Amino acid sequence: MTRSDPVIEWLLDSDPAIRWQVMRDLIDAPEPEWIAERVTVETEGWGARLLACQDEDGQWAGGAFLPAGFDPREWRERGQPWTATNFSLSQLREFGLDAACEQARRTVKLIGANAHWEEGGQPYWQGEVEECINGRTVADGAYFGIDVSSIVERLTGERLDDGGWNCERCNGSIRSSFASTINVLEGLLEFERATGGTPQSREARGTGEEFLLNRDLFRRLGTGEPADERFLHFLHPNRWRYDILRSLDYFRSSALLTGSAPDPRLGEAIAHLRIRRLQDGRWPLDWTLPGRVWFEIDEGEGQPSRWITLRAMRVLRWWDAHHSVHA
Questions:
Q1: pLDDT attached to residue 170
Q2: Quick one: which of 53, 57, 216, 285 has the most CB atoms within 10 Å?
Q3: Which residues lie below 8 Å from residue 109, measured CB to CB, with a gap of 6+?
């Protein structure tokens, strides 16, 4: 792929958060070039805009998981709010904010000093009780240089017998969920990238991957039917939600870290990803989650999405590169 490709040109004509990933993952720009582009996430575009929404104490919207003064009626009537610290930090990680930059270092230090989970008042970097929340907290903490090993140890001990995780475990659930599992897997992968992981975390990541792979990333194990039709429709930002593109992007990142080949069981999800490509080479945003946000970062449902297209193109590039070599 080259800059002259109209889809690549469209992706590059965007925010720094998109551009640097296109440069690294799709057009093989020299590392100094994409790093220089990545630096601007702190000072330009969506990254700078989200940082400007931050409270003086380092949090967003005055809360860890929920905005300060949150009224449960808002969740019922308008949808879950996405403006508090947990989701804002995850978004900055997706944007690629440099963990070593001044704003990032200041942010994680202030959050450690001032943020506490609404559920039980725990300090932010000690984690909460839900596996989904803790998975994202591990991913953010590991990415931004925080010691989250105690949360990782907890998560590895909370696996269910089928190898994955479920936020409803504390309420008696004995079957893993796709959403809980991908949230934890992304956290364990980020932890492994930052620290090398532990034998327990690497083992847990393996069983979680098998949970998804044994189900072709979207099927019920017993019937073979899609576990949820929405798993086959792409959304962004995912927040805590699951779809096959999120899962495929995870498996790509995992394989790049470990040097492993793509698992053949990804093939059906890959085929579905190809089918969803528009004639002009882009992918649409199928749906979005309702609820309060700081600002929109996509053109709207049904429109071509730079985020979906970026992720889809790098997944297919990774898959096709391996299969063309080994054809």
A1: 78
A2: 285
A3: 58
- CA distance to 43, 126, 183, 251, 277, per residue, from 134 (Å): 29, 9, 8, 20, 33
Torsion sign (Cα): 80, 82, 86, 90? positive
Is residue 123 classed as helix, strand or coil in its secondary structure?
A: strand
Peptide bond into 6 cis (omega under 30): no
Which residues lie below 8 Å from residue 84, measured CB to CB, with a gap of 6+?
59, 60, 61, 62, 63, 64, 65, 66, 67
Residues 211, 176 contacting (CB under 8 angstroms): yes
> Dihedral sign, CA of 263, 269, 271, 274?
negative
Taking alpha carbons only, the member of 126, 125, 135 closest to residue 183 is 135
Walking along the chain (327 residues) 10 residues at a time, the average pLDDT comes out as 85 98 98 98 98 98 97 96 98 98 97 97 97 98 98 97 92 90 98 98 98 97 95 97 98 97 97 98 97 96 97 98 66
Other Cβ atoms less than 10 A from the Cβ of 309: the count is 25
What's the chain's Rg over C-alpha atoms? 19
Measured distance CA(221)–CA(134) in Å, rounded: 26
Question: 316: closest CA among 275, 258, 279?
Answer: 275
The conformation of residue 75, written as its DSSP 8-state character, comes to H
Helix and strand counts by DSSP (H, E) for the chain:
14, 0
